[in-house]
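Example 3.2
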Amino acid sequence: MVSSAIVAPILGVATPALAQDQVADQTYQFDIEADTLAAGIADIGRASGWNIAYTFNLPTIDETVQVKGSLTVPQAISHLLRGTELSYKVTADKSVILVDRTASATTADDGTVQLRPIDVEATQTSPNAVINTLPAPYAGNMVASGGRVGMLGNKDIMDTPFSTTSFTREKIENQQAGTVADVAKQDPSVRVSSSSGGMLDAYYIRGFPINIGNSSDIAFDGIYGVTPSYRIMSDLAERVEVVKGPTALIYGMAPNSAVGGTINIVPKRAGDEDLTAIKGTFGRGEQAGAHADVGRRFGENNEFGIRLNAGYSDGDTALDNQTRTARLGSAALDYRGEDFRATLDLINQREDFNAPSREVRLAAGVALPDAPNGARNITQAWEWSETEDNTALLRAEYDINDSLMVFGGLGGGISEVDRLFGYPVIQNSAGDTSDTPSRYVFKSYRWSSDAGIRVQFDTAAVNHSLTLQANYYGDRLKKGSANGVGLTSNIYDPINRPAQSVAKPSNIVTRSKNTITGVALADTLSVWDERVQLTLGARQQRVETDNFDANGAASDSYDESALSPMAGIVVKPWEHVSVYTNYAEGLSKGDIAPNTANNAGEALAPYVTKQYEAGVKLDFDTVATTASVFQITKPFGQLNAGNVYTSDGEQRNRGIELNVFGEVSPSIRLMAGAMFIDAEMTSTSSASTLGKTPVGVPDFQANVTAEWDTSFVDGLTLAGTVIHTGKQFVDAANTNSVDDWTTLDLAAYYDFEVGKTPLTVRGTVENVFDNEYWSGVNSWSMISQGAPRTFYVSLTSKF
């Protein structure tokens, strides 16, 4: 590590004091008029407290450059450098290196050679700290230069033996994402398998489902059981991180047994600068809303922080007959002392629908008809859904010394659902449907905790970063239901039927209890200045389940254990190259043999998913590319020829992932990628499914997002996103399929000032050509409908 105090006199650096634990994409108030780039850089540094370094003579500029308004430091630097051949790389918290695109080295006036930029790294409270620390945004500010990798803590992408993506707050805001699903689907390895306008979001990662329901397989600040169960509004998130592949070691077994990857929500925290942001929204039909985001720090050294978020929206959506009301309230409190750090997150989220859209099913022997217009809503206007979540999480870290830290967390949530709707079944090629609305009440209670130590030490020439963690997760589901009267309709021309009044079920009883406990140990060994890093670890986990029938009587139970190992290696042979490989296991609860089996009631051991992956990551300072190949095998239960239920079924997914992101030029930013996947049922007891493609897994997925800061209007950015998804099979025998589809979204963002108040107006059109398509198939062979052309705008003021 090169200290900024040493580098500054050599490189020509604006060097105001560093503040610890700064959120890297915090906004600051700038009012700068610079006649030279050096003066502008110095002024940005003084106003923000960031180190900005450069290793070459700065070019002259013809006109005075104005940098004004509430901006992040990368945004301010991008504005200052517009029109030059210079760019930048954020190298650490509050540290930036300028990059000359025209040469890898330059010659100073005295004839000395100035080499490529030297990374300047900021200090932090502890090398082990996770709370209130974030890897810096990568050039372009769409994604971060690293992210949280479960129990391993924060890691730079070049040091991570997995394929990961961390979407920044700036990306979330510019996209005007309403939910975490809107963000996550920007990763080409992720797809959303639920319908637009429905009450929940469900996902596929690397061709395996991430199911959402009475408990969520999405982590919050590194822990399961805290996020709202059915849908997560994006205003909660500072970042949305995706770790691809099985994560049983680093996150523990997911409550719903997801094995394709983990989505982690990084909560907002108060930055060193006061923040007050007010946003008004309109669109997605005729919905209007408002959101407030306020952050403050207090204390002699700004050790106390509070970040408050509150939002409300209401109105008709883009779907026929549908209205939506949503509210969000959250409080994020934190303390950052010299040795002790703690956070407390409190969340209330509610979402109510009239006529919530639902996925459809196919009757036996019926071919899937063409998709209707995305605005068609087969749900009756009198059907409805009400969902409310209350969650909390307390986390703390304490530095015993410079190399040893203890940490722990305790949290949980309560989700309550009351709804009346059904699941339409398509009966013929004309799109006729049958349906039976049902009144369901769910109450889900979740508890989650972890505790551990993280220590750094050396043995001879080997550096160790060792983490020992114990974790606990528990949930209890209460449920009751009552059926209405069957009805018929049509997907192309929905029929309004008389309203049904279905009484709230009186018998709401406990239907299941689940407990997952585990102990994990992981060590990252590094040598040769961390050019070779080997991570080894394992987690011992126990899964206990008790199920109950509709009357609350015990029906079956489950109590099994398994060990989940992981090994990963990173080799950095050259400065900008990182090669990695891993073997990782995922864990999912084994089934209980059905009553028709000869071994009825037998609990199968947990299913062990195995991944082999290798990849290369290239970091060219302002543009990075990654490429990986993987194979994941997952067993499943089935009846064999002797009518015994066993876990000898297998799904195998093989794939190639390609990604590129960063700042192509000072005014153009790019995030693009593709996943090619060959998924196959390699072991089944049925000849009709053996060798076939698993339900809902396309062979190709691709995303491209580009942003351009226009030269003809200062402050105006134009953006576009193309998403493509290949054909997906609806049934295991591959007799029905969803066609491939492609959508185009266009957007514009404009930064300006009224008086001295900075404003940003954003406008977006999704599905510009109003394509009609089935968007996906979930793991229950239910088919989701693509969204129609949708307009929405927002106006944000930060002061």
